Amino acid sequence: VRFSWLRCYLDTEKLGQAEKTELDAHLENLLARADCTKNWTEKIYRQTEILLQPNPSARIEEFFYEKLDKKIPSRITNGELLGQYMQDAANDFGAATPYGSTLMKVGEYQRKLGETEREFMQTSAISFLTPLRNFLEGDWRTISRERRLLENRRLDLDVCKARLKKAKVAEAKASAEHELRVAQTEFDRQAEVTRLLLEGISSTHVNHLRCLHEFVEAQATYYAQCHRLMQELQRELARFPNTFTVTPSISAGPSGVAQSAMPAAPHSKAMEADGLKIEEVQAPAAGTRKAKVLYDYDAADATELSLMADELITVYTVPGMDPDWLIGERGNQKGKVPVTYLELLS
């Protein structure tokens, strides 16, 4: 009988003919706040998962391991795999060759970066992802269950109100009034239970705020470690010999004699600066060009040449030199100058 009444009531409610019990404004605000919290927590959780593990197949595998309550197997990171490939290639090319020895060193640091990344992923999963997932799979499910009960109690109450209105005889009215009082009591009790759960969302925000700070701290530590490792790698590579000169192409000159497409290597005298050998170059005229200085530049050390905007200088390069730099010459002054500060003239 109750279900037939309920079905009938729902049909009339859809048509707008039945009176619907409204929740108080405070409870409505709590419900809206809870829905907002759930929706954004879900989005942040999913996107953080993607950030920590971009591979969707790996995420699905980890999901099934969690559901089966099994330990997720350790997975090598892309950085570690790249480092392994570099070191394997170095062994094939010859670890004593310049390319092989550099590959070996870079591969070593790529593996270190990969290990650092794995530590960051594990720390973030524990300190940030797990609390978010616990809310979605725990607290939110409890809240949703109690909300459904509240909605059922509301429908029961509305059915009792409708039944009382339709009662004609005194006996039917008495019975309907009794059912209404019981339904009202159950509705009020369930509304209070739901309200207490929804007010707990404030504690959830406080907990997630603490977890967010821990996540930022983990990120800061991770990026600081990566920066430190890359600085170490740069210092290591600075000690390696720079033997990556390009073999010049050969073309026939006007006289039919083979000539290099690149200018002949100029005579040089070595200077020592910061432990690195820099070439002070006496360049032949054929290899020089004029350049206009675009911006002021202060030399960082004795091997560089300070520049003033709009002045004209002579520039040229030498084999094995960093392509971002040229040798600049102003009168008797010479030194390295950055290409980005120059406009090369024809």
Automatic annotation (TrEMBL):
Residues 12-246 form the BAR domain. The keyword Magnesium does not apply. Belongs to the endophilin family. It comes from Scleropages formosus (Asian bonytongue). It holds the Pfam family SH3_9. This is SH3 domain containing GRB2 like, endophilin B2. Residues 286-346 form the SH3 domain. GO terms for cellular component: cytoplasm; membrane. SUPFAM superfamilies: BAR/IMD domain-like, SH3-domain. GO terms for biological process: membrane organization. It comes from the Eukaryota. The lineage of its organism: Eukaryota, Metazoa, Chordata, Craniata, Vertebrata. Keywords: SH3 domain.
